[in-house]
Amino acid sequence: MNAIDATDVHVTLGGQAIVRGVDLAVPPGQVVALLGANGSGKSTFVRSLLGVVPLASGSVRLLGEPLGRGVPWQRVGYVPQRMSAAGGVPTTALEVVVSGMLHGRRLRPPRDRRARATAALAALGVEDLVDRRVQEMSGGQQQRVLIARALVREPSLLVLDEPTSGIDLPTQDTFVTALARLRDTGTTVVVILHEIGPFAPLIDRAVVLRHGRVVHDGPPPPARGEHGHAEHDHLHPHADPEPPLDGPDLTLEVTP
Amino acid sequence: MSAWDQVLTLLGSPLMQRALIAAVLVGAAAPVVGTFLVQRRMALMGDGIGHVALTGVALGWLVGSWAAVSPADALAVPGAVVAAVVGSVVIELVRERGRTSGDLALAIMFYGGIAGGVLLIKVAGGTNANLMSYLFGSISTVSTGDLWWTVALAVLVLGVGVGLRWTLFAVSHDEEFARASGLPVRLVSMLVATLAALTVTIAMRVVGLLLVSALMIVPVAVAQLYARSFGRTMAVASGIGVTVSVVGLVVTYWNDVPPGATIVVLAIVLYALSALLHPLLARRRAAHDPHPDMSDDVLVPAVDAACAPDASGTPADPPAPRRP
Predict the structure, then answer these.
(1) Any idea what the CATH number is for the domain that residue B111 is in?
(2) Is A172 on the interface with B (CB under 8 A)?
(3) What is the ipTM of this complex?
(4) Measured between CB atoms, does B238 come within 8 Å of chain A?
(5) Partner-chain contact A86 B229, CB within 8 Å
């Protein structure tokens, strides 16, 4: 039984086809990196896998169950790109992490919520933030709280959307350590990345999206040293700039 | 008459007893729902529902006059409940659809609510004056029947709002994550909207439809200045709601001022004072360095003495200006 079984997934947002026929089967325990330029549809694809955005067509099975109420949601963890900027009511890290204990079949958190939330924060080295307002935290601290919210339910499938964008190096290392620990316990991980970077030793497989389609599925493309090679698939945080359609080319003039 | 005697007289009046019970329940329930609305960035939703509920009041009146029930406004509160619930669900559906067009649709619905109310009350044989007590509240006219409505709905709102607060919080805080957790986001959003609608109808007699939203939102605005957590914000806001409602009501017992407006003005004055005092209190609290102790990503040759971990209370010497 695959952790994720997505067949011919199409997603249309605002009348535009964002994901155009993606197939993805992820066996349990695999660590998959989803790569691609900005706007290649990887975030939308992942959100459609989790039922956050509706599928235009195609089918998705998570942990063996078709997307919907039947999915064992308590075993699925999701880390969005950044903390939602909800209405400004003060919220502590504890409350955010405890909300991760709720799912389709549990509408109230368990009694030992504080201990479990603190343990999840401790796994990311930020247990001292437990009673701090998330609104006052730095981006990296918020990101750790979001990961703790996904880990607190001890997921067997973890989906992360660019967990390291805008994060300092020590924090990135914390994530890699945490992720390595999860992989060792058999957790399936799907992680959206711009650069494989520090995750390289963990990644089993890389799937590259371009214009909403899979253009590469296999071993992770080499990260360094071969950028100049002719067949190199240039994976970088930024998209190549569009060449101007008309108008003058860049010229250099030397005036005497 | 001593002050104590005056309090006893106040508590002895059946009218005042009913009004006080209503005020306490409404004051406690409204900010609980208001906290979720503020978190969802829908602070003005209560206003919208209030407008729509006015049509419900007039509709109830119209049905009552057809059915020849007496008094003529016996069905006004049930009418308001139905219209408010329908209106809130429509607002929620519009919100779910999109942004810009939703904004317009909501505005049109609000104006339609007021216009419909004024029109229908005329058809029902009433006058605009009949609507005034609903628009601005008339706690002195709370009957025993009204009180039972208020008690039942307030207990329902408080029970659901507090009992399911974690689910309501999860959906209000991060809808996307809630969806990815398999939580019934749509149902919960509708539930919040329905709770807001019920709150509007029970608060209608106390502060009036036009001021309902103030009792839901202003206590939250005060509480979030000082509270550190969502749960604390909700509890403090609820306490503030009860306090301003009771104090406002007691003030109107001795002075001839409208209760609804008095309660709202009290709440706003409280907010103004809190907002003014907040910077002073916050400055006293912020004694520690908010920056986490992390290694730098870059190699920095020298460390400023003031930032060194062993920096004592004595001020460090300013770095000597470097000259070429």
Answers:
(1) 1.10.3470.10
(2) no
(3) 0.84
(4) no
(5) no
